[in-house]
């Protein structure tokens, strides 16, 4: 399995009147061909900024990629011009947005919005584009596609619109699909249908998926690997099994403990106390220190190096340090 | 749709009737008569003239006679220019006024939208400040001041363009500029603000994510949505341009309808007042109707034939 995407040391900042927000502070991850990587974290941790950075859709000003590289099939997208990016967007990398109610243009027909991508990029005739659009509508499970192409977004329900957004993203057969909270705006039954659709699409097209979400339920269903983000950094990555069954970072554990579980009746949920740090002036050490029940003096001062627990499982936490382990054994935690 | 048009048509007729009635009431309540200024006419001649134009009848009868003349589209002869019928005056003046009005609208809409888009795309940039500077000037300077300034500078001092009348395209430039600047400024400001709002919408980001060119994003995805408020304000602007033509026609000595309209009121030329008023109001009402129809074309969510929403 080759790597389709490699992000190294990505930094994104936003310059505002109040100061500079360091939204993404050195993110590293990679994505293998045909797999689904979930980036998980609470609101404001930099998930969406990371995904927008890959598409180079960060509005500049105020946003800017200040450092790092985004290698897509070996080519560094950070160095690409706006024109070069245009030939990548929608063709090689597609994006699905959070809210299907606002992602479609209310004044254009579904057909127009579906077909304009293929027409612009592949220069096909409108008949060919229409054939392709109908094929996509079938793939995402919209019945009577011929008729529905002529309709406008307001004639579709939320779930149907998200299917259309997915169809639009897939029509040029991209190699990478970035889904930014694709199910957050939908109700639970529709969420399940959309997630099944993702699985079906991946089998049918072999597309690699980056799934941005804060919902661990969604992750458990379709992710292969998980990257946990906190305050602009990835603090733990691993396979789904490793993250769910052997979480190492206290924040990952906190996240898992704050998910309601059907099998544990009557137990209280344990939320993580406190709030994430202010990214105008992020702490020098581990950003989770202030909320971490195991915080040590060193945590506040120096950011921990990445520790490899297995080939796929990496964590940035001082608790993984040999010296800390001795300490923990000593106090029998 | 047909039902909607029929309904609108009926409402338009009622509106027109109200305008006619109000004009009649205003007209007869202004002191004076068409024959006041005629020093030569004595009492008998005057009585004969009044009888000739049915002005000796009681007001309700006069009112009914007016209604009849409107329904038959025959406003009768002008009192002040007895050898000409009101219909002749309208037929002569309307094409010129129409040309002035329509050209003004076209110039104002196109230049206003372009200025607005440029300002929005270069938000807080030099072009934005320049465009909005022009817009503020355009809104603040009344068209009659601008008209006089243009005549003074361009026509008199620099002798680049003719000062008055309406005989060639070169003659049209100054009056249209004077009349179009105000509406253009309003359209430019409105387009800019709605465009800025629309450009932050998710579907614009989505269009970018599709890899569309900036040109397509602006004209296919953003502009259509940004134009809705512009269409809304078109009704008011049309009324403004229409009244503006009276003034501009006077200043540039353009032989349009506006001249007859203003003169007829000063001279109490009742048939001409009635004829021009009815004509102007009918025209404005029809234009407003077209604006409403334009809504449905721009935004498919607006449907005319159905009651309530989806």
Tell me about this structure:
The complex is a heterodimer of chains A (333) and B (310). Chain A has 333 residues and is an alpha/beta fold. Chain A has two domains: 3-92 and 174-331, P-loop containing nucleotide triphosphate hydrolases (Rossmann fold), CATH 3.40.50; 99-173, no CATH class. Helices cover 35% and strands 24% of the residues of chain A. In chain A, the strands form two sheets. An eight-stranded mixed beta sheet of chain A has the order 6-7-8-3-9-10-12-11, with helices on both faces. Chain A has a four-stranded antiparallel beta sheet with strand order 2-1-4-5, covered by helices on one side. In chain A, a hairpin with a 2-residue loop joins strand 4 and strand 5 (75-76). The longest helix of chain A has 18 residues, at 188-205. Chain A is globular and about 70 Å long. The mean pLDDT of chain A is 87. With 310 residues, chain B is mainly α. Chain B has a domain at 94-255: MetI-like fold. Chain B is 75% helix and 0% strand. Chain B is built from eleven helices and no strands. In chain B, helix 4 packs across helix 10. The longest helix of chain B has 38 residues, at 214-251. Chain B is flat and about 85 Å long. Chain A binds chain B through residues 55, 57, 85-91, 94-95, 97, 99, 102-109, 116-117, 120-121, 152, 154-155, 165, 168-169, and chain B through 201-203, 205-213, 216, 220-221, 224-225, 298-301, 310.
> Could you name the CATH class of the domain at 94-255 in chain B?
Mainly Alpha
N to C succession of SSEs of chain B: HHHHHHHHHHH
CATH architecture of the largest domain in chain A: 3-Layer(aba) Sandwich
Evaluate the radius of gyration of chain B: 24 Å
Percent helix among the residues of chain A?
25-40%
**What is the number of independent domains of chain A?**
2
Tell me the CATH superfamily of the largest domain in chain A: P-loop containing nucleotide triphosphate hydrolases
Low-confidence stretches of chain B: 305-310
Number of helices of chain B: 11
Q: From the helix content, strand content and strand pairing of chain A, which structural class follows?
A: alpha/beta
Coarse structural class of chain B? mainly alpha
Work out the largest interface and the residue count of each chain: A-B, 31 and 22 residues
Q: What strand line-up does the widest sheet of chain A have?
A: 6-7-8-3-9-10-12-11
Domain ABC transporter (chain A): 5-256
InterPro entries (chain A): AAA+_ATPase, ABC_Ni/Peptide_Import, ABC_transporter-like_ATP-bd, ABC_transporter-like_CS, Oligopep_ABC_C, P-loop_NTPase
Protein name (chain A): ABC transporter ATP-binding protein
Subcellular location (chain A): Cell membrane
